[in-house]
Amino acid sequence: MRQRRKALILQPIKWILLLGVVGSGSVYGLSAAGFIEWNSEHKLESLMFWKTTDNASTKGIALAAGTDKDNAKASVKPTPTVSGAPTATTSAAPTVTPASTPAQTTAPTAPATTAGLQVISQAQSIVGVNANVKAWLEQAGLIKLDPGKLFSFQAWMVEASKGKVPEKKADELSQVASLLYEAALRAGLQVGERYAHQDNPSYAAAGFDVEIQAEQKDLTLYNSLDVPLTVGVMYNGEIPILTLNGEPKAEWKAPKITVTKEVFAPESMFVTDFTLAGQGEAKRSEGQSGLLVKVFVDEKNDGKNELIYKDFYAPRPIVIAKAPTAEELKSP
Known about the structure:
Residues 69-109 are annotated as: Disordered. Keywords: Membrane, Transmembrane, Transmembrane helix. This protein has three domains: 1-48; 109-254, no CATH class; 255-332, Resuscitation-promoting factor rpfb fold (Single Sheet), CATH 2.20.230.10. The protein is built from seven helices and 13 strands. It has helices at 2-33, 44-47, 59-64, 131-140, 153-160, 170-187, 326-330, and strands spanning 118-124, 144-145, 150-152, 190-191, 220-222, 229-236, 239-246, 256-264, 268-272, 281-283, 290-298, 306-313, 318-322. The strands form four sheets. The protein has a four-stranded antiparallel beta sheet with strand order 1-7-6-2. The chain has a three-stranded antiparallel beta sheet with strand order 3-5-4. It has a three-stranded antiparallel beta sheet with strand order 8-11-12, with no helix packed on it. The termini are far apart. The relative contact order is 0.11.
C-alpha cells in the first residue's frame, strides 16, 4: 500500500521533470534554429507581462534581419501636424550608381562643325594658302551665324584678335572674307556691306572677291534663314574649301547662282622713253583685260533670274615705250 502511494506521488514528479527536460531542449533547439530569440538580460521581470518595462522592442531588429518576410514593411507612426502646415514625409533616398566617365578622345581631322549638319553651301579658293591664312581660316571655323542676326567681319576680327592670331594683313583677311562671302551668297544669305577690288585678285573667283581694310572696309551678312549656321573649313591639298553648315527645313533649297562675264581687251598706250634713242620701242607692260561680271540669283529655283549686282574690273593698258623722234630730241 505504501509502495503504491509512493508510486502515485512520484509519478507526477517524473512527468514534471520529463516535461522540463523536453521543454528546455525545445527552447534551445528553436533558439538555435533562429525561430525565437532569448535575451539573457531579460530576467524574470520580462516574463511578467502584467508589468511594463523600459526595454525597446526587438521586433524591428527581427524584421530587418528578414525573419518575418511577410511583414517586412516597418510601420511608421504618423507625425502630428499643426493645422495649416504641410506634412513632411521622409522617404529613403535611392541608391545612385555613378556613371562611368568616358575617356577623352582627340578631335577628328574633319571639321567638327560639319558633324551631324548638312553642308548647304561652299566656296573653294582659286589658289593654295600660306600658314597665316590657314591660321585665320582656323579662327573662321569657329564662326556661328545666328538666325535674324547681322554678322560683321570687322567685329569678328576684333573678337578673334583677343586670342593668338597672326598679323592682320589685308590680302590674307580679304582672302578669308571672299570665301565666306561666296558661301553666304550661295546659301541665300542677305549681303549688307561689301567692297570689291579694283582688280580681280588671283585668290578669288571673279564676282566673289571682298576687299577688307581694318576699320574702313567691312563685310556684313544677315542670316535670313530660320536656322543657325556654322562655318567649316576643309582642304583639297593646299586649296581651302569653306562651307556653311546647318539643318534647314526639308523644303529648303539653295538658290541658283548664275555668273556672266564680259571681257574687254586692253588698249595699247605709247610713251616716249628717251633712253631708247635710236633703239626703236619696247613693251613695258603686258596690260590686263577688263572684266564685267554680272551675278544673278534664282531664289525659288523657278527659272527667274534676278540681277543682284555687277562688278567691273577695269582693263589695264599695254604700255609700250618708244624711242624719241628727231623732232622730240631737238625740243628743249
